[in-house]
């Protein structure tokens, strides 16, 4: 069950309450009877181990193509087409 932090708007009393998701929100301060508000803090989750960092998913080599895959395939098909006609012409001359 989750723990919720509450603070009184009038007296400033702060406390934690363990409540189910289906339980209604507390509205009355136990100290002075004033109105309460829920406090939201940072989540206590840490990611430890491999696979959570940018460098963990990279392979040992740092050769990453700088151009998108669409440009790379277009340039390689053009270069292979230009290589084919020049090779027979060079061997025929």
UniProtKB/TrEMBL annotation:
It comes from the Bacteria. InterPro entries: Regulatory_FmdB_Zinc_ribbon. This is FmdB family zinc ribbon protein. Pfam families: Zn_ribbon_8. Residues 54-93 are annotated as: Disordered. Coiled coil: none annotated. Residues 1-41 form the Putative regulatory protein FmdB zinc ribbon domain. Residues 66-93 have a biased composition (Low complexity).
């Amino acid at each position: 069950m989750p723990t919720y932090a509450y603070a009184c708007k009038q007296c400033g009393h702060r406390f934690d309450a363990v409540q189910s998701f289906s339980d209604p929100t507390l509205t009355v301060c136990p100290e002075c009877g004033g109105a309460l508000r829920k406090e939201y803090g940072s989540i206590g989750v840490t990611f430890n181990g491999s696979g959570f960092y940018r460098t963990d998913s990279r392979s040992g080599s740092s050769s990453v193509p700088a151009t998108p895959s669409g440009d790379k395939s277009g340039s390689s098909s053009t270069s292979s087409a230009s290589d084919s006609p020049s090779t027979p012409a060079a061997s025929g001359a």
